[in-house]
Amino acid sequence: MSLFTVRNWWKTQCPTIEPAYDSFSLHCARLCIEEGEKDSLVVGSHSGQLCIYRPSGGTASLPDLDAEDAVEEQQKQGSTISEPFENVFQHADVILEVQLALPVLGISSGKFTTTNKTDPRLQLAVLHPTKLCIFQIVTVDGLADHGDHTRLVTLYDHPLSKPAFSMCHGPFGEVKGRDFLCVQHLDGSLRFFEQDGISYERTLGTDRHIPAPMHYLPRVDCFVTVAPSWVLECYRYQDVAEALESLRRHDPIWSLCVGEYALDLQVHQISNTESVIVMLGENNLLCVSDTGKVRFIKKLDYSPICFHSFVTGWYWEPGARLMLAVVSESGSLLLYESDQIIWSAQLGDVPVAISRANVTGLPGALVTLGATGALTIGYLGSDPQLFRVPALNLAPFEIARCQKELLELEREIRTGVDPSDASIANAAAERDVKLYLNTGEETVACTHATNIPPGVVIEMCQLSMTVQVEPKLEVLQLTVTTDQAIGCSKDAFLFRDVEARSTERFDVWLYPKEAIVPATRTVTVYCSYTNKQGITRVVQKAILLPLKLLLKPCQASKEAQHKLTLSVVTAQQNHLGQLFPEFSSDGSSASAIGVQPIGGGDGRKVTIVAAKNTNRFRIQSDDLGMIALVLECLIERLQGREIVGQPAELDGVSRRESSKVLVTINGIPSISGLMRALQMHCELRKAVKQLETELEVTTGQMRLFERRFVVKLQERSLRALDGILMLLKRNHSSVAKVCQQLKLMRQRMKLAQIELAAILRLFHLCYTHTANAPSTKHFDHLTGLLMHSVIDSTEQSYEEMLLPVVRFLDQTGPLKNTSEQQDTFDEAFFYNAKQNERADVDVTIHSELLQNQLQRFLGRVNDRFGSTVKPSGSGSGRNSVDFEDQPLPEAHNEDAEDEEEEANRIDGSEFAKLGSTASEWVNYEKMSDLPL
Q1: FRET label pair with 398: which of 87, 427, 848, 893, CA 20 to 30 Å apart?
Q2: pTM for this prediction
Q3: Maximum CA pair distance of the chain?
């Protein structure tokens, strides 16, 4: 943004206030209606309005210092005045306003008739989509006090056989004292109109699929335009106007590749021997002489909207200068002298057309036209708006003082915010949109692509979502979120203009996508909508997937590295056969059950053992990440929030009912397992970064070899092609190898993210159901730390995002370190590593810091919550008499079950297409597909 602004001198609003104007809607010229007149402003809109303005300068012509002092004195006295040197719009400034029958595409003025050669008045040419009209502006003397008035007289019009795009005029054929017209149609053909009624149509040599601006060069009697192939072409008028095709020259006399579409073209004669063509492209400003020689190319670092070029002085004088005024999309006006910028100013609004006019009281005025018809005349001459950078606060950062300020701000926020508003808004959202979820226990063979090795039987289940809408909604979107190890056939539905009191059902398929146990089997559906008042609300529901979709029974194991013991306080005795009927083959007599992942063939399993005499359970496994899902399922079923065979939708009612059953966990998993998962995640991210860097280097070499190959082809050096081909083949093999390695490494990092999320979920469950449960404020802080969503962005790793959270909890809040010795580290080295170009060093530093601080933090949390929170040991598990050695049941025959299910399997064609209850709902895959 510039320091200077364009000052308004005169402004008005055209009759049409809709966006009906473009760069061809403004024309500034001297119409020679009366003697000594200045330039008039002719504006035409797409709605057919044609207006002619002649602004009057009034008494204030040019700004001076005395006037500015007077303005300041009036402001001090409190009087309201308009902006300095701004003329108020008067009714006499409007010469003509007329409503035409057709939209106005272009306006030009010139000598378009031969009736009276001594008449200095110019005619007005107006281009309509299917007609070209020539008008004469006639002034009628008034007989009363209201003065003269002007009207538009139609001289003649030319009907067009094809839709028009633009027009240009000039003395074609170097005819003196007359102007001819050329209309360009949408198909690129040209229609010429002479003053004696002769008209003919011609087609340029190259194909014209996209019309472009076209102008006439009077000095060389040529036309210049841009072809659809982004080539600037110049055609001689005599070649184009030749009647016989055999005698015509179809090729341009010169051409120049500009490489982009031309937003606008303008031509000027700058000397007795040269004319220039100025082209505004989408990214460049180009100036070419009339002989095809490039004078300069200006690379634009902004998106241009429109431009205007003019010559200061007479072209036959040596001091004539070519000036260019370009308007950017941010509303900045940039003034160039040739290719050098000499001034920059800020416009009040972003215009669609700009021109230069000589009006009464202000020579060289800037005329701008907005998209909605705001016509403004301004000048360059404002004071800069200086911005002073405030002084930096170099006070030392004090955590205690910042914490005190934060508490005061939170107290002020709680005082000003009524918590009842949130409950009222949530209740209103539940009334407007009702969301129901349902998952069936029946599963079918999976038909979607997964990362599970072939040969494994994978099944999928159906999730039905029913949406009932009460009011009329503008936008409604459904989003299904699952764990990374669980796949979804379609995770987003987007609708627009949803009718009131409508109901729709959506069905998606959920299936295991990775050969690893997910962190959670909870599926959350978010329903966000925007009503007609523009208010956005979100309704969310959660539901549990069937456990048999992710796990399958196996032989229970006696030994395990990690073990957790659960104690249940309830009136009834729970049996494994009742809790896991899908995995128990002999009813309620099972004392141990083993489960493993659906796609797991590496022997990893989880064993659940029930005590003989007490209501206690033990979960043991050699893989720490697999325990989280089984532990969560066991707690849900013990507390009655999930009953096999019924929809397991999680809501507030089920949570209140489950509070009657108390489930406690004796022991906390070893922190070393979490540290190993963090270290593995860090090493894989370093490997991915290294492969991405290597891929960038190899692809850069590939582009270099390809360019050299093209050069050798142009030089016809066949002997040198053998070496280039060998390099290309080797580099292509290297690129393919790195791509394959990067794909495998990203898959491994995804599995590491899932395992790390499962371990975090396990710690979250253990702290939630520990025997000495933490208080609410302690648990809230732990919940924010142990979030089971591990995501790595392109700029930050998970360790880098988690480290500030651990440091904050370690220094503030109820879990802070109360000892005098604080954990310190070299902050200068830390920030230098952050700015280091080597990404592997950055990841390593953050991972080491996170592991050290997280280990100390969780160790202090375990000590704070009491002695009952002890790390779980390893061994055979014979410390309690309830878990004595007993024969573990054999796993049931899975092959027999597979044969039985194959015989009773339902035909998959029933699930190929799901019916809907409201076919008016139209699904939009992307936001860009929404209708305007």
Answers
A1: 848
A2: 0.55
A3: 124
